[in-house]
Amino acid sequence: MRIEFSGPIWYWRGPAPFYFVTVPEADSRELKTVSSAVTYGWGMIPVTARVGDTEWRTSLFPKDGRYVLPLKVAVRKAEALNEGGEVAVRLELW
Length: 94
Hints:
Blueprint: E1 2-12, E2 18-22, H1 25-38, E3 45-51, E4 54-63, E5 66-70, H2 73-78, E6 86-93
Antiparallel strand pairs: 1-2, 1-6, 2-5, 3-4, 3-6, 4-5
């Protein structure tokens, strides 16, 4: 399964602060339909993500009925990404 979308980068200041981009509602619904077959716990879904020229393995987190993609520091630096900026993402489930 491959999903492509764009969205704004946002910052979460929780106990483990991090930057994310939220998967759109329609794509999140589609992911939810396959989640029971691919999740490894807590609803997390393993994916290969690509932003620009940077590709990495990570997991989508469920949040507020949708999924969010964490953006590692190395990815943000390599692609010059900042909070509030729009980012184009490609996801492939493992």
